[in-house]
Structure formats: C-alpha cells, structure tokens
Amino acid sequence: MDTENIFVEFEKYLRRRFPERRTPVDYLSDLRQFRSVCQKPWREISMHDIDAFVEQQRASRLKSATVRRRVAAVKTFFDFLAEESGDLSWPNPVRFKRHAGKVERRLPRDLRDEDIARVWHEIGCVRDRAWFALMVRGGLRVGEVVTLKVSDVLNQPEGERPARIRVEGKGRKERMVWLSADAYAVLAEWLAERGESRSAHIFLNKRGQPLRANGIEWLLHRYGRKAGIDLTP
Question: Model pTM greater than 0.90?
C-alpha cells in the first residue's frame, strides 16, 4: 500500500478512535511533517530517525507542546502500522520519554474587560457574537462550542433562575453550564436568526453545515487582528 493510501486508512482509524475531535486533522498534519523530513521505508525507520526529526522540529523554534504532539502522532501511526500488518512484534521507533520531552505548564492568558469590549465591537455577525459570548461568559472550549446542539439548551432564564445548557467536554464528559440573562439573549438572537435546519448543531456555516473548530479559530484571529489583539480560543 502506498503512502497516501496508508494515510487515508490512518485517518479512518483516528476518526474511529477520536470521533468529533480535531485529533485526526492534527495528527495527519503532524505525520506529513514527519514524512517530509524522513522518507525511508516505514520498516527501516529507527529511533535515531525520530531523534533527527525532533531535533529538526526544535531547531525550527516550535513550541514544546507542538513537538510533543507530533511525537505522539508518529508513535500512534507506528502502533497503527503494526496492527494493520498483523505483526505486533514490529518495534515502534518512538520512545516517548526520550523524544517528547516535558512541556512547561502555563496558565492560560485571559482577556482584560477592555480587550473583550474591543473584540466585541468588531463582531457584527449575530452567530459569531453568540459563540463568542458562550466562550467568554460560559467558559466553553472551542471544541465544545462546535458540538453544541439545539437540544442542549435546556431552559430559558426565568426570574432569578439562569438558563442552562448541556456541554459535552473532553473525554465526552457532560456538564451543566449556567448562562446569565444577557449571555442567553445573545444566543437566543442567533437561534431566532438560524431558524429551522436539518442539522441539530447550533452553529452552522453559510452552507448550513456545522461550524468547525478551525473555522472559529480563524474568525477569532481575524476579529482579534481588527481589534489589535493577538487572540486565540
């Protein structure tokens, strides 16, 4: 099987393992990065080839977390090759402790209230205001925003009782998020504009398909650039 067909099968494998997550997209990209550096036959790739790849990635001044993810992607790929070949004795050339290194853990950098106001001023789209409000006021991750469904909005705010939405987080664990009346009002405005759809997802693109995480990342970066702020989810 040639490399492209192997990559197609690997993507299918990842989508079975990580449904509704962006891991398949990231790992495929990481694997192509590895293949551009090391083009040996898969059976001939050694631990030292992985050493060379890691050194090349670090020389490119990539973040430690990015290098670590790329090492994980390559390790997962060789596990996949062993399973697909039926030769479970095929040694994996990746040694995670040797190649991945440790990642410095830092607290996320949050936005000041005045920065939020500047970004909000740049968002004219009702849909984008809704997902931005959920991230800022509800603390939702970008992956949690794109998987939200209309049925996850459990109730409207009534009196002193806030609205509730059901959120599916990492590891497919569910939690309840409470929304203030003003945050819910922004979401309700988008739901009214969205109208009926065959898709159950709340956030749709212009073609009526679910909005993707990388789509929100791109939009957020664009709004941040307009506001003069380096912005990520």
Answer: no
